UniProtKB/TrEMBL annotation:
Secretion signal, residue range per the UniProt entry: 1-20
One Pfam family per UniProt: OMP_b-brl_2
Record lineage: Bacteria, Pseudomonadati, Bacteroidota, Flavobacteriia, Flavobacteriales
Organism: Croceitalea rosinachiae
Entry keyword set: Signal
UniProt xrefs under InterPro entries: Beta-barrel_OMP_2
Name of the molecule in the record: Porin family protein
Outer membrane protein beta-barrel domain residues: 31-203
């Protein structure tokens, strides 16, 4: 509910800006910004990551995921294909944290696992824009990414029996989103909302095939949402 209300607030603010821009005849800012064949910039933002679990057997008790907010930072390079299409490469650093609650344990030390992840991400995206309206231009964006999880602990000799939750270092998937370019007097400012969907199973299973932590998990994949603020 909190996430939904937040997204609605962002959309309302964006809509108010759209109305304001359509309701007057402003001076067009940085008119040649989108005519460059190659463009560069950077972005800052925040995220909230989750896990999607698939189970071997339906035992009626799901693993609980407590989410928190993390942050994103990165750079971008953009190649202009035509008036409406741009290809973007957005390498960046992303930090996030999730707490997992496993059912069937009486001890908190056994039931809870904190998963801290630092991802180095490499998204390759296609940006599809509308025509520019005064000083704004809405767009949708999507593509594929690969990332390296620096906090995965994939090579650790310990597992959950020793309190160590392990994940795979390499993750790949796709992301989809939308945003609005705002052309200010000196630069282009772009808020965007993205959904992130991993495709590969990220779980490294415990040595014991009947482990109460990982034995019933068929797959574990990241799902997330993040908001970026881009400056070009």
């Amino acid at each position: 509910m909190k996430n939904t209300l937040f997204l609605l607030a962002v959309l309302i603010l964006a809509s108010n800006n759209l109305v304001a821009q359509f309701g007057k005849d402003p001076i067009l800012n940085i008119q040649n910004e989108d005519k460059k064949f190659i463009n560069f910039g950077y972005y800052l933002g925040f995220n909230q990551y989750d896990f999607q679990f698939e189970y071997e057997n339906d035992i009626g008790q799901d693993i609980l995921v407590e989410k928190s907010f993390g942050f994103n930072v990165g750079v971008l390079s953009e190649v202009r294909l035509n008036e409406f299409l741009d290809v973007r490469f957005e390498p960046g650093l992303l930090y996030t944290s999730r707490n997992l609650g496993f059912p069937g344990f009486t001890s908190e030390a056994d039931a809870l696992r904190e998963v801290r992840s630092t991802y180095i991400r490499f998204p390759l995206l296609l940006k599809v824009s509308t025509r520019r309206f005064n000083n704004i231009k809405p767009f949708i964006i999507g593509g594929v990414y690969t990332s390296l999880n620096l906090g995965a602990k994939e090579d650790s000799l310990d597992d959950n029996s020793s309190g160590e939750f392990r994940m795979k270092k390499s993750v790949y998937g796709y992301e989809l989103g939308f945003g609005i370019d705002f052309y200010t007097e000196y630069f282009k400012f772009t808020p965007s909302i993205r959904g992130v969907f991993a495709l590969n199973d990220e779980l490294v299973r415990d040595d014991d095939p009947n482990s109460p932590w990982t034995g019933n998990i068929a797959a574990m994949r990241t799902r997330g949402i993040f908001v970026n603020f881009t400056f070009e």
